[in-house]
BTB domain-containing protein (Littorina saxatilis), 272 residues
Amino acid sequence: MSAGVSLDDSASQQQFPDVIELNVGGRLFQTTLMTLTKDPNTMLGAMFSGKHRQPQDKDGQYFIDDDGDTFAYILRYLRHGQFPPTSKVEEVHGSAVYFGLQDLVEELELLPQILIPKVRSGFLSHYNSINTTIKQILETAVKLSYTQPLSPRVAVIMCVRNTANAVYKERAPSHHCAFSGWPETSSVHSGKWDKRKADLLVGPLSLTSISEKLYVDGLVKEMVSRGYTVGREGIGNCNTGFETQGAKTVKGAGCGGELYRILLTWQLALSI
Ligand SMILES: [Zn+2]
């Protein structure tokens, strides 16, 4: 059946009435052919140019496979040049891209609802280890939470290992980062921090254009934007590495990697 499509192209030229009845994802619209073909360079312009056959539903209305509620804003823009309300910007942007409404797309891309996620995803893809690190933090936090099931908060001590750091290159590959003698400043843990090993070793990363601190700030902000209640404190640098030598674990010098306490608050119900 589909074999004849290309041959039938000229035969399938379609004549459209001046007033068009549309069925967009089940929602019905009436508009004019002029409105739909105002800009012949758009997909809607092409669809109703007569060069392509448009599918019709059982009542003869031209069918467009899109979300009807979103299409209402597209139609409003075609009719009056009106922009969607703030809450609908994301959906309408998706449809505007689909229908090739370049002017509308460009206008919407200047709005924070589109621009901020775009910049953020650029940041995330540039530092693509951020997603991996967030996953590791969450997995470690969940594991630690199982050991203290009544605590609504968990602190993950992580060491950010950066290959741009010269001391790291020498020491870190063979050791587990730790620190000792750091004064207790947090009210969360009253236990001793002495000689505590990092719960999580991040990397090795190659952070050449941003500092470890900016990297950690970026991932904390990303976690907050995903709905987590999370904060971070810098707690110094790795000054005590534990190395495996044969069957023994021995204490050695630190690698200087930056240590952070990531504090995650679970939204736990108080009653169990
Ligand atoms: Zn270390």
